[in-house]
Give the backbone structure.
Amino acid sequence: MQRWTGMLRLTAENRQGRTAAAHVYHQGAYKIARPMYPDDTGQVYYYVMNPGGGYVDGDRYLMELELGEHAQALITTQSSTKIYRTPHQPVLQLSEVALKHGSYLEWLPDPIIAYRNARYEQRTVIRMERSASLICAEIITPGWSPDGAQFAYDELALKTEIYMDEQQILFDNVKLRPHGKQMLSMGRMDGQTHLGSMFVIGEQATPEFIEQMCDEIGLDTLPGRIGLSQLIVPGFAIRMLGNSTQQMEKVFGIIINYVRQQWFGKERLALRKY
Amino acid sequence: MWDTSTDSLLSLLQWCDSNFPSGAFNHSFGLETYMQEGKVVDKATFADWLAMYVNEQFIYSDGLACRLAFEALTDSRLDDIWELDRLMTVQNLPRESREGARRIGERMIKLGTELYDCPHLQHYRERVEAKRAFGHPAIAFAIIARHVGVSKRTAVLAHLYSSVSSMVQNGVRAIPLGQTEGQKLLYELQPVFQEAAERLEELTGDDIGIVSPGLEWSQMKHERIHIRLFMS
């Protein structure tokens, strides 16, 4: 048995202002599209191609990503992450990310859609230097089942660990096990169907910046239930409850575009979803 | 049934007394957001909120941390305690709740070192003062409970009780409810506490910090509520 169903290793570096792959290796069902440069800032866009449209029982995927000094990359997926029934073994997605001095990563995968009786385990470990910047965002939908029932999957377990200069600065442990529970009840999903999480970390994310951002984008007037809070280092977390992927992508897009414009003078994201 | 000596019992009662100045009365941990949303308005809705708070957040955070800290102390794994202190802080994404926990923890550590000659607690205090630890109430409580000689299960149950009883007092003041209703609530919650303590025994370190999305949202949202009684 192969250890990984798919494996992707990518190291990108800044070459005279333009970020390019120094090393790419992929194996099995994991593929990455040609790099793209939709704007003139030197930031590279990579699309990771989800395997055959979906994950099946026992699939194990590993991604290793490193951004060298002052490299800038956006990594996204070509379509949503679909997880089919997993009667025997949960699907595993492991990602290890290293961000070197002055690098910038936007990690913006498409939403997760878990089908009836699916189990999915995702573990993301990000190690960044203090001068690096990060935006990562993720949306979990209520899934899909033939009879239209929501939350028919067995378990979604998404763990994120972020370290800065070797010290852990964030731990997020989302574990949704809907069986026998009123998922929409108070304190759980509070009547909403979609769960979004976003982390923005960088030296420029001071309390003053965050305050100004909330004012300028009119955070309190945006749709959905949006919680935003400072981390223990310059940066903030967002937890959002909403009722559609489009609604969440709209809100996340506003925030991402604000941050990249303010920090790096970049134009709006050139993605279909944001 | 108490498995503690009379001395331990008295110390435990002191720590679980709602007059104990830990500062917990300043924190609603998201309750106030639900009150302002009109979701918690009376004894019945407050009871629902409390059960949710215990089962969806407390057991995976303070409850499990208290148990794990107690076990680490028993096995003299002190490094695991300091790691847990950090993990409990960085998993608490809502800033007000995180800072509330840190303040209460710091207060308990200080009070505890004033009352007892407890080397582990003294060590914890020194680390907090040197900014090598944050300070967390569940870990402080585990150290104190072990020092005064209560069992792990009693420690966890007592920590659960004292945390929720502060919350009940907060609800009584803020909703508001009558004092009698508050006491009825605490009494009616006994099975919830017992079941939570049972479930806690089954959890592993892998379950620490499991998120209750709505509750966490309410704890973050509280920062942006303008008129408020509580710091979280």
